[in-house]
Amino acid sequence: MTKLLQFFTGQKRLLAFSGLAILLVASFGIMTDALAHGVTEGDKGYIQEITGVMAIEFIYLGAKHMMTGYDHLLFLFGVVFFLYRPKDVGIYVTLFAVGHVITLLSGVLMDIKISPYIIDAIIGFSVVYKALDNMGAFQRWFGFQPNTKAATFIFGLFHGFGLATKILDYEISPDGLLANLIFFNVGVEIGQILALVGILIAITYWRKAGGFLRHAYSANAVMMMLGFLLMGYQITGYFVS
Length: 241
Prior knowledge:
Shape: globular
Strand content: under 5%
Distance between the termini: 53 Å
Structural class: mainly alpha
Number of domains: 1
Low-confidence stretches: 1-37
């Protein structure tokens, strides 16, 4: 009887988490297309009017995009979810950063234009993948554990293409382009560090408060659902846009 009560209590918690997740993604769904792709009309209009090297402006834009990029933050949350040592956090975050730096620079400089809906759908899939990885799904389903470092780097490449689509949407002047891209990436890294500090503080507090391992599966199940909903939102946008 006790086990039965515990089961139903766990299911209630999962339903509560799921309800919150649905509300969050529903709020995403009513956002404008510009906000969904991280390019507000105000920012876009301002960037299109300026030329030359603009360090502060592009650092700000990079940091703003990362701090408000819920898809990037969800993936980052999944990456550090079970990392306890600062060294491991540093390794995985560095792999992720190197990946998105490569495709951010190459995507813009080589003018690689990919539908932002497709890229953002893949980014949503990265959230699903990481949640399943944290839940041990691959070991249960296929009997092996994929290389988590390689996966973090590969998905970092796709996240970088996502950043590149934002830059291409700005239609910025070629005057000072390389320098501005570097400053934008500096801003992205600053935003990532600030976001990571907040995530680590929250997770550390959760671990110390107790119940972390007991609710870890439910939390990743909610993260997986958020990833699927983000994928569905972007795929729908691709076909109706």
